[in-house]
Specification:
The structure holds two protein chains of two kinds. Chain A is an alpha/beta fold. Chain A folds into two domains: 247 residues, Rossmann fold (3-Layer(aba) Sandwich); 94 residues, Oxidized Rhodanese, domain 1, CATH 3.40.250.10. Chain A contains 15 helices and 13 strands. Chain A has an eight-stranded mixed beta sheet, with helices on both faces. In chain A, strands 9-13-12-10-11 form a five-stranded parallel beta sheet. The radius of gyration of chain A is 21 Å and the shape is globular. Chain B is α+β, with helices and mostly antiparallel strands. Chain B has one domain: Ubiquitin-like (UB roll). Helix content of chain B is 23%, strand content 29%. Chain B is globular and about 45 Å long. Classes of the chains: A alpha/beta, B alpha+beta. Chains A and B meet through strand 5, strand 6, strand 7 and strand 8 of A and strand 4 of B.
Chain lengths: 355, 79
Amino acid sequence: MDRFERQVILPGFGPEGQGKLKQSSVLVIGAGGLGCPVLLYLAAAGVGKIGVVDGDVVSLSNLNRQVLFGEKDLRKNKAETAVRYFQDKYSDIQWEIFPEFITVENAQELILGYDLVIDGSDNFPTRYLVNDACVLMEKPLVFGAIYQHEGQVSVFNHGPNSCNYRDLYPQMPSAKEIPNCSETGVLGVLPGIIGNLMALESIKVLSGFGKPLKNKVLFFNSLTSQTYEVEISANSDSKSSIPETWKDFEQMDYELACEGIKQLSWNEAMKLMGHDVAFVDVREPGELPPLECTGLMKVPFSTLSSQLDRFEDAEEVLFFCQSGIRSQKAAQQLQQVYPDKKIFSIRGGINALKS
Amino acid sequence: MPDVIQIKAFGMIAEAIGSDSLEIENPGTSLALKKQLEAQFPGLKSMKFSLAVDKKMIQEDTDISQGKEIALLPPFSGG
């Protein structure tokens, strides 16, 4: 007997289904609220090779839903911590750790060696980036996303005549339009359910068992426990908005396309620093660790609207916060007042600097 | 029988409308429906969402006949 016996005896799945899972590889983008349950069940089911991409670190407020992590994991990289947990648990899976965020530069290399991509990210720019990369590489993509008490799940790019994210949402929305769970709150069970649906869809795609949600999107409401399934059809503009080549893809700025604000890495930000550049910490007093350096402006996000005139002389403004969300909002707010200034937000905030 | 349609709203759209379902007089087409809803709930103007008629997504202006169910489907980004 082996650890997969209960699914091998399952009629219709059998040793063939198990063999296909063993031969398969999946790349999980984001080891957060969705990524954790996805990883738990795909590892338990015996997928042969699993790659985990996440540049973020574990924080205390993650623990209500990111069930792979505990109090001892705070400030550790999520991809590394998740994989270490599984290496301890199972000996028969090949793991790859990518402690970084997916970008236009690394997407091709990350996705290349995998049969299936699973998007458990938490922002629109990444969701469009992953979609376009999967279309370019003809890789199936299992998609899941949540908002407050609701979730949506679909399978994109799975074989011929398959729709993708841009058919479902041809117009790129901005973060301002739709807040994420760090702003609106979420019961940990919801990403647990949606992540499990994503794991289920992944097993269907990989093993050929059952009918995946191809050209369909499933909505789930945790307050009413109702589901709603909608058939997706191809959008004529969708094709033309996806870059045709990798060269075009690398030229794309997904953050700018979604938000109107360009995001920089810490490295890129360091190169920009100069006397005409305002370097601004928008965290509230007391947020840790403090950052001290000459010329650093401290403008807590809660007071920004009353201090906008302090930016009058700066030609370029560089905002950062703890995780990169408030700084983006600060940048948007300032850009509205000063449309001609070059305003940036540092991707991942202080958390990205620490890791 | 009055010419009415059922609206089902999700996520932010349900919040903007104040309900996840309502029955309204049929404006005839999907574009007219969108305009009518935006006039009634101005919060919708700045939101992007897709429309489905009887659980089939529509990509362009579509006639709506009596008794149809129209779903207003916003994108979610959280994870």
